[in-house]
Amino acid sequence: MILEADIKAQLAQYLELMEGEVLIKVSAGNDDVSRDMMALVDELVSMSANIKVEKTELQRTPSFSVNRIGEDTGVTFAGIPLGHEFTSLVLALLQVSGRAPKVDQKVIDQVKGIKGEYHFESYISLSCHNCPDVVQALNVMSILNPGISHTMIDGAAFKEEVESKDIMAVPTVFLNGEEFGSGRMSLEEILAKIGSAPDASEFANKDPYDVLVVGGGPAGASAAIYAARKGIRTGIVAERFGGQIMDTLGIENFISVSRTEGPKLAASLEEHVKEYDIDVMNLQRAKSLEKKDFIEVELENGAVLKSKSVILSTGARWRNVGVPGEAEFKNKGVAYCPHCDGPLFTGKHVAVIGGGNSGVEAAIDLAGIVKHVTVLEFASELKADSVLQDRLNSLPNATVIKNAQTKEITGTDKVNGITYVDRETGEEHHVELQGVFVQIGLVPNTDWLGETLERTRMGEIVVDKHGATNIPGVFAAGDCTDSAYKQIIISMGSGATAALGAFDYLIRN
């Protein structure tokens, strides 16, 4: 039995929701992965009379496709979709059977309106928490539009194919044989990349808001909900709903929830926001802010949104090292997420830049799968908690180098080493390796504001105890501000504070 008893019990409940028959076409060999895949398929067939199976020969072996009876739906799994991808398999079975995907009708119409042939391939790792979003989005597109197909490829099951294409980050998506993109992508983001996104005309006739929230992370969601609960006209414009927590795996300090994962929390935030009369504008990047009769926020697509008050909650992003080779080899050996991309470096030598908690935690995680991990710390001592340092120092395949100033990440078509300078002696050293994980903190997403608002030298927006900035009517919350600590629960609280501050401003002005 390939499925554990508790998972199988949950699966049985989901399979009862199937609305029609599906046909699984299986292409299997005599290898271990094929045998495990067949065991999974056999269990699925035994659990539902709506699932049929037939053997065939697909492009890759082992693999199987999930189809409506009498047609090729275009949804294929190459490898065994367990781990984080098990949900992708369950959703594919339900949606192919006829159960409608939980997607806005506007997005469904966009997908159905796409003309042409789009053959997607996504290379994933079963331990990657970012990959399911991409897999599930591409599966939905394949199910809704006969001109679109998608194959999920487990990199561990098809190592030679992954190496031949120099894939060093997951998820990596190919479209019609050419690299399309990498990293987490929502359905709306994929549509935008293939030229099916809202333009400025869709925002032209929007009435001014009472409160416009810029940013869709924990602070932005909290601010929007608090504002909407006051019964005032509220909008939220976000480049990516969920923000940075979409890239966070384990969350164990969100009070009242012992453990959750970033994508799950982001989905809950979005679901909560949509329970209120909030105008949600996703996949839109703010370009500038100016106070006139109203406060005007210009978007990258040229649209201008007007509001009586604005709450900025644009969050932060990974800080770059800023050395030669970092940008050139991004996703070609330079990575930022050890949970997602770590398995691609199994048995290899990697480095982690950064000796704080995130860097040392990354090194500990990587040490379990790579041949050797080298931690480079700029300061004379690691900054991570002592318990983490003790764990790192106990590992036989981990080395810590302090006073190390990274000078260059080297390579040809992919990373082959890192050069650093010993800050004590001035000597230059080179370490041969195949991967570099950057873990040196965050930088606020406030560049687009220019000199409009008062910011710290680090770019953080300066706010008072009400969340107000130096411009009347403009408030800010979360990791983009000068708050002392950057935590999810603190961001949510500051979002609520900013919304209440904005409401107080509105009733007094």
UniProtKB/TrEMBL annotation:
List keywords of the entry alphabetically.
Disulfide bond, FAD, Flavoprotein, NAD, NADP, Oxidoreductase, Redox-active center, Ubiquinone
The coiled-coil regions, if any, are none
Cofactor remark: Binds 1 FAD per subunit.
Any one Gene Ontology cellular component term annotated for this protein: cytosol
- Similarity remark: Belongs to the class-II pyridine nucleotide-disulfide oxidoreductase family.
Does the keyword Ligase feature in the UniProt annotation? no
Q: Which GO terms describe its biological process?
A: response to reactive oxygen species
Q: Which residues hold NAD(+)?
A: 349-363
Is Disulfide bond found in the keyword set?
Answer: yes
| SS bonds (residue pairs) | C337-C340
* Positions with a binding annotation for FAD: 210-225, 469-479
**Listed cofactors:** FAD
Q: Which segments constitute the FAD/NAD(P)-binding domain?
A: 209-494
| Species the sequence originates in | Fredinandcohnia quinoae
Primary role: Transfer of electrons from NADH to the respiratory chain. The immediate electron acceptor for the enzyme is believed to be ubiquinone.
Record note on quaternary structure: Homodimer.
Could you tell me the gene encoding this protein?
ahpF
Q: Name one GO molecular function term.
A: NADH-dependent peroxiredoxin activity
Record EC number: 7.1.1.2
Write down what this protein is called: NADH dehydrogenase
Q: Which residues form the Thioredoxin-like fold domain?
A: 125-194
What this protein catalyses is: a ubiquinone + NADH + 5 H(+)(in) = a ubiquinol + NAD(+) + 4 H(+)(out)
